[in-house]
Specification:
CATH class of the largest domain in chain A: Alpha Beta
Strand order of the largest sheet of chain B: 6-5-11-8-9
Oligomer: heterodimer
Largest sheet of chain B: 5 strands, mixed
CATH topology of the largest domain in chain A: Glutaredoxin
Radius of gyration of chain A: 18 Å
Distance between the termini of chain A: 28 Å
Order of helices and strands of chain A: HHHHEHHEEEH
Shape of chain A: elongated
CATH architecture of the largest domain in chain B: 3-Layer(aba) Sandwich
Radius of gyration of chain B: 22 Å
CATH class of the largest domain in chain B: Alpha Beta
Helix content of chain B: 40-55%
CATH architecture of the largest domain in chain A: 3-Layer(aba) Sandwich
Strand content of chain A: 5-15%
Largest interface: A-B, 45 and 58 residues
CATH superfamily of the largest domain in chain B: NADH-ubiquinone oxidoreductase 51kDa subunit
Strand content of chain B: 5-15%
Number of strands of chain A: 4
Number of helices of chain B: 18
Chain lengths: 154, 432
């Protein structure tokens, strides 16, 4: 993460003095964007840079669902199966995705292209069912729409 | 259209979220008025007089929260807009962030001036991508136009803002959990007192308000508390943004003047039930609010007092409409799985209670339910209530007992016959 330090310095300027601890979440997010996950070395270096205990960063990494310690597939499909999505066919479409990719939620395809997750409400209930593909929302899903979407992901 | 509109009253286009168009709609005039003609105390007084209630779920009066802040106590104060929208069924703050971000920013500037805040924050859930980009773009525009930074519009008032992204935790939407998260830690809520308005972010007085609550401030200051009170009902002034989902023909976000007839709203604005089906029940304001049956809501208005009288709440405005033929046992399974997943694990009754309830509902759905399971769900719900630091444990219980109270017969049927009376169905059975 060392090459990100100039960027983190700039970020620090946007916060009031004494807010170093607050930088943990944005810095971890940025590290993960670069590497795809957060490695042990990142924790040590970030803790030293911010002056926070390494355990605080470890806790943050294990607490929040968006952070991870291991690499995942190039395309991360996060499928909502909360109330409104389930009421509009999420389970059926999820089953279709599982069959198509040959993996269950929590798994990645052997070629490292896809990782499938099921998640709770993403605030997209009026356009259910939905999933995230990396950062983007894909809404009002149907089988045909999912097929088209997956074919476009290389 | 369900009554007057204060926040959504303009056509959404590809550019309607921009600063130029917001200003063309009269935007930032209220900030100008506040800085030139009003003292901070006048603004607090005006917001208090407006009777504005919090739009995040608890409907706590915004003015009463603000009044705790002592203007010149020699400490820094902080203001945080809670945009960690995660209550299942709720997506109305997302509408504001995507389509009218400047109304939030203008309102936060006025509120910061009123509360002697130099640094304010928007805590936005980490998954929101477009809402984040829209808001961050609006912040850049507002800085470039001199609304943020040193000497706002040439006045003595200076203010900076940071948009802070969460990382996936329902409990971070709870105000003290949010503050822990904004301090770069896991979002464990903490006991009150001291209240957050006394000791909040980094132990300083902090006001945390929902995005929609804050977004009303610009209108209130621009038009006056009396004009605001003239909208809605005496006990529920103003409008609310309802995010409607489930088995309706026209789901989406609607701004509704409080006091509007509920059934009329569902039938005319939301287009009625999918496939012409019949209404079974409604989750009024996010899954933490108790369900109401079609008969319960037949004569209700969308107003806080009507919902309280009916034993529920408008909550977060996340309205989930459920058609006849839906299996309430399967629905509760989804809800209890959610609470179990999102319990932060800090308090024993919630950590164990939500897991226990989840295991019970799973075994009922698997056809292995026991006759005593219904009473056990009641027992755990009751045991959770009031014994945890934050409301997540309570809410799991309310959601559970709310459904059990109304649909106990479906649970008894499922346990006795080892199958659902409605084939475990969650989707709308189309009448075609």
């Amino acid at each position: 993460m060392k090459h990100l330090i100039p960027e983190f310095e700039k970020l620090r300027e946007r916060f009031p003095a004494g807010f170093e601890s607050s930088l943990v979440l944005p810095c971890v997010r940025r590290i993960q964007e670069e590497r795809g996950y957060v490695a042990d070395a990142d924790i040590e270096q970030l803790a030293a840079f911010l002056g926070v205990p390494p355990i605080q960063i470890e806790e943050v990494l294990s607490f929040y669902t968006q952070f991870r310690r291991k690499p995942i597939g190039r395309w991360h499909l996060q499928f909502c199966h909360n109330v409104s999505c389930s009421m509009n066919g999420a389970e059926r479409i999820l089953e279709h995705v599982q069959q198509r990719l040959g993996i269950a939620p929590g798994q990645s395809t052997p070629d490292g292209r896809y990782t499938l997750s099921v998640v709770e409400c993403l605030g997209s209930c009026g356009t259910a069912p939905m999933m995230m593909v990396n950062d983007g929302y894909h809404e009002n899903l149907t089988r045909a729409k999912v097929d088209e979407l997956l074919e476009g992901l290389q | 259209m369900p009554g007057r509109q204060l926040i959504m009253g303009f056509p959404v286009t590809a550019t309607s979220h921009s600063l130029a168009e917001y200003r063309a709609r009269g935007g930032y005039a209220a900030l100008d008025k506040a800085l030139r003609q009003m003292q901070p105390a006048d603004i607090v007084k005006e917001v208090t007089a407006s009777g504005l209630q919090g739009r995040g779920g608890a409907a706590f009066p915004v003015g009463r929260k603000w009044q705790v802040i002592v203007h010149d106590d020699g400490q820094p104060h902080y203001l945080i807009a809670n945009a960690d929208e995660g209550e299942p069924g709720t997506f109305k703050d997302r509408w504001i962030l995507e389509n009218n971000p400047h109304v939030l920013l203008e309102s936060m500037l006025i509120s910061s001036y009123a509360l002697n805040v130099r640094n304010c924050f928007v805590y936005i859930r980490g998954e929101f991508d477009l809402p984040y980009r829209r808001l961050a773009g609006a912040v850049e525009e507002a800085y470039a136009a001199g609304f943020f930074g040193q000497h706002v519009l040439g006045s003595q008032f200076s203010c900076d803002i940071v948009v802070y992204r969460g990382a996936g935790a329902y409990v971070a939407g709870e105000a003290s959990g949010l503050i822990a998260s904004l301090e770069g830690k896991k979002s464990y809520p903490r006991n009150r007192p001291p209240r957050l308005t006394v000791r909040g972010l980094y132990q300083r007085p902090t006001v945390v308000n929902n995005v929609e609550s804050l977004s009303n401030v610009a209108w209130i200051i621009g038009n006056g508390a009396a004009a605001f009170k003239a909208v809605g009902t005496p006990k529920s002034p103003g409008t609310r943004l309802f995010s409607v989902s489930g088995h309706v023909n026209r789901p989406g976000v609607f701004e509704v003047e409080l006091g509007y007839p509920w059934m009329k709203f569902l039938e005319e604005d939301c287009g009625g039930i999918q496939g012409g089906g019949a209404l079974k029940c409604v989750v009024p304001g996010g899954v933490s609010s108790k369900v109401l049956t079609g008969a319960d809501i037949a004569n209700l208005r969308l107003a806080h007092e009507d919902l309280w009288d009916a034993g529920s709440t408008l909550g977060s405005g996340g309205m989930i409409v459920i058609a006849e033929g839906t299996c309430m046992v399967s629905l509760l399974q989804v809800i209890l799985r959610f609470y179990h997943h999102e319990s932060c694990g800090q308090c024993t009754p919630c950590r164990h209670g939500t897991g226990w309830m989840h295991r019970i509902i799973d075994r009922i759905v698997a056809g292995e339910g026991r006759p005593e399971d219904i009473e056990r769900l009641y027992y755990i719900s009751k045991f959770n209530d009031g014994t945890t630091i934050c409301g997540l444990g309570d809410a799991a219980g309310y959601a559970c007992t709310g459904i059990l109270d109304k649909y106990r017969d479906e649970f008894e049927y499922y346990i006795e016959h080892k199958r659902s009376r409605h084939d475990g169905n969650l989707e709308c059975l189309r009448s075609s």
